[in-house]
Each structure stands twice: as C-alpha cells, then as structure tokens.
Amino acid sequence: MKIGFIGAGHMAQAIINGWLKVNKVSSSDIFIHSARRESYAVYAQEKNLVPVDSNNEVIKKADIIFLAVKPLVLGKVLAEVRDKLKKQNKVIVSMVSGVSLTEIQQELDNDNVELLRIMPNVNVEINEGMTALAKNECMTEEHYDFCENLFNALGKTSNISEKDFSTFVALSGSSPAFVYFFIDALSRAGVKYGLSKKQATEIAAQAVMGSAKKVLTDPRTPWELVDDVSSPGGTTVAGLLAMEEAGFMTSIVKAVDATIAKDQGK
Q: To which H or E segment does residue 64 belong?
C-alpha cells in the first residue's frame, strides 16, 4: 500500500526513518506534504520520498493517510480534504494529540471513513518505540492488521481504549524525556566524582537499557527486582532511601499527573 503524510514534523520523520531503517516501506511508496515546502521537500530529497504539492494530492496518491499536524491546524486540514475523502476509500491514521476519532469523523462529515488513532513515541526512529492503537468501528480487520504490522516493525504496539490515551501519553509519549533527564542526572553525579560526562553518560545509559530489558524479560515485578539488587545494609539501599527522602517516586507521579492534565487541556 502507498502511504501518505500530511505533516512532516519530528514524529512523522521518526516513523518514516524507522521504516526505512528496516526496509519495511519503500521510500518510493511514501508521499509527503506539509505547510512549509522548504522543510518537507529537503527531507523528501534526503530520504528519496515523493514530495507532493498539496494535501489533496496526498489523498489522491496514497492508500493510508497519516495526519501528522498540530491540533490547532487539524480543523483547517480536514476541511480542505473533506470532499476528496468522501469520493475515495482511504484509511486515515491520526497521530494528533488530544483529538478523538469521533471528533475527526464529525469534522470529515463521513460516517464510513476508516479511522485509526495512534500515539507513538520518539523511539520508533530506532525501532524500539511503543505505539498505542485505537480504531473506529468502520476500520476493517485487514487494514487494522496491516497498520499494526507497520508499527510492530518500529518496536511494540498496544491496543488500548481512547479514554486511556492521555495516560499512555504520560507513560510512553512523554516518558522518554523523563528517562533522558534521569540518565543525565546520573551522569552529572558521575562527573561530580571525577568521571568525564561522556563516560558517565555511557555508563548510566547502558545501565538503564539493561534494566529495561530485564523488566521486560523477567517474570518478577520491578519492585521485586529492586529487592533483588538491594543487599541488607548495602550501598543500593542507602541510595534508594536517599532518593525517597528527596521525593523520587512522588516526583514521577506528579510528572505523570501534569502530563495527563496538559493533554486533557486542564
């Protein structure tokens, strides 16, 4: 199937880069357009994609259309392509934060349009991403399976209810930044005690990567794994107690709360 992108921002490029890296989609099968030709045309040339001159041209050329624009301009984009979509049977994949499938369907004034809502994170670019998926009732199982397969090539997927998308944004969409922050904090502590920033960052990042893989492969809970590393009276316990005294767990929960509130417009 041909794939089209309306919008060519960082997340759209991360998805495309991930596909190209594992040869999941041919560059000649990806059509792209955004408001700023100077940005999307250069990217298309670099990756041998097919740049087109309008959003309606994306609709015409592609079978699966990705909406990769900001929420503030989504209404304008949908109004522009509404008539074109009524005349053609296309699958619409929205990665627009905070906009439901029902809202998109109402904007398109089309009760038969196949819609899939997704929420990827930036790690799709290195094929280690996590993507939430939610489809409307019109979407066929064949098209859903095809799209799910596209995103499984970029990491893992989770079929969740739309009502849980804001929570997913916090736990997966925004959390890479929280993890980067944690790695940077660990590396700065290493610098405090004499390591170079580069060396300390590599040590911390490898520890985080290995720990994440351990959580995904070990049947025990993360807290049980904490206990496994914590020898009685040892250094790890001392560090954990210091983290809790500084409010580590509370700060993480507050970060999730704030992210969800922002995504829900509160």
A: strand 64-67
11 annotated ligand-binding residue? yes
Check the annotation: does 69 bind a ligand. yes
pLDDT digit string, tens, across residues 139-161: 999 999 999 999 999 999 999 99
**Joined tokens for residue 151:** 């995103």
Look up residue 51 and give its two tokens.
């740049």
Of 165, 194, 223, which residue sits at a domain end? 165
Asked if 167 contacts 255 with a C-beta cutoff of 8 angstroms, the reply is no
130 carries a ligand binding annotation? no
Does 8 count as an annotated binding residue? yes
Side-by-side strand order, sheet with 114-119: 50-51, 30-33, 3-6, 64-67, 91-94, 114-119, 129-135, 155-159
Q: Are residues 18 and 146 in the same domain?
A: yes
* Residue range 5-27, pLDDT digits in tens: 999 999 999 999 999 999 999 99
